[in-house]
Amino acid sequence: MRHVQDNAEEAVRRVIDALDDGEYAYETDSGAVIRVTVRVDRAARRATIDFTGTSARLATNFNAPRAVVGAAVLYVFRTLVADDIPLNEGCLRPLDIVVPPGSLLAPEPPAAVVAGNVETSQAITGALYAALGVQAEGSGTMNNVTFGNERHQYYATVASGSGAGPGFPGADVVQTHMTNSRLTDPEVLEWRLPVRLEEFTVRRGSGGAGRRRGGDGAVRRIRFLEPMTVSTLSQHRRVPPYGMAGGAPGALGANRVERTDGTVTDLGGSGSADDGPGDVLVIETPGGGGYGRPSPDPHQAGEEIDDLRAF
């Protein structure tokens, strides 16, 4: 185990050798900001990840426990390691993480934290990638959806587009970063629950334009056959996923209920509504940000097609 951790530590130190200082202020839909500064000490082969300047504890449940911050930092630096190493504590040895007490990333009880793991974790990851200049933002949200009644309950996350980076485009409709779930098969969903899955398609054109285009999000439509209460927990319904190096941001997501009487209820990023038989829940997930300024050069456009095939 010592060898495994020592090897992981050295792998992350090699990543640090190639990094530059960076910083980013990541604004969330609520207006709260996650601010991160990365400082590289080349002599010591260490990096400090400092979240000083992050907004104070929130009255909502988007606060994240300190452990979530550590997990996001570990994830980001592990993705920068090209070597095939097991994930372990050694990755964190060369990293000093500074989290200001009382901020939304280090809340004290009785702060609510349910969205910290599923939403704020994504924002932390996006802030780190931006500070490091690695790639554009992907969905930046898990697009959490729950619905149910006295007899049925269901929870799922819906995939979005991933962000593009230098030399690669984003991917369409994929779970990104802190997500690790798969959707229920349509046949199983309709067999077990009184719903009909009317649409689950790629949301064409929602990825940000760029030298490398961001991935497209999804459109998911679920028709209820019984009265249901639906709730959503998501981000990037107000602030679009950022592009990088001149690339355009991805499209905003949207959550709504289309009712049988023709009216539409906008759920916003986080909302709840009581729905009747025949009402349709519509989730449009964000697109990923693009990377680099779009080029009119046909040869470069051809290279982008080759990148898509390789991806």
UniProtKB/TrEMBL annotation:
Pfam families: Hydantoinase_B (PF02538). Residues 261-311 are annotated as: Disordered. Coiled coil: none annotated. It comes from the Bacteria. InterPro entries: Hydantoinase_B, Oxoprolinase-like. Residues 1-294 form the Hydantoinase B/oxoprolinase domain. PANTHER family: 5-OXOPROLINASE RELATED (PTHR11365), HYPOTHETICAL 5-OXOPROLINASE (EUROFUNG)-RELATED (PTHR11365:SF23). This is Hydantoinase B/oxoprolinase domain-containing protein. It comes from Streptomyces rubradiris (Streptomyces achromogenes subsp. rubradiris).
